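Q: Here's a chain of 61 amino acids. Please give me its 3D structure as tokens.
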Amino acid sequence: MMTEFHRGIAFLLYQTTLLLGILAMPFALVAHRLGLTLTVRPLIESAERTYERADGRADGS
């Protein structure tokens, strides 16, 4: 049960970071025009790795 709970939380975290990345797009475009860079990619990649590890545990891998 704890594994399913962990996988669910990891999935929620991953989906939330994707949503934040999508919502940040207009700000990223404006920042890019000003010569700034918003680094959202590492946050999304970290959440994706966490979800993949949690999903692998649920499969018995």
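Q: Can you summarize the key feature?
A: The chain has one domain: 2-58.
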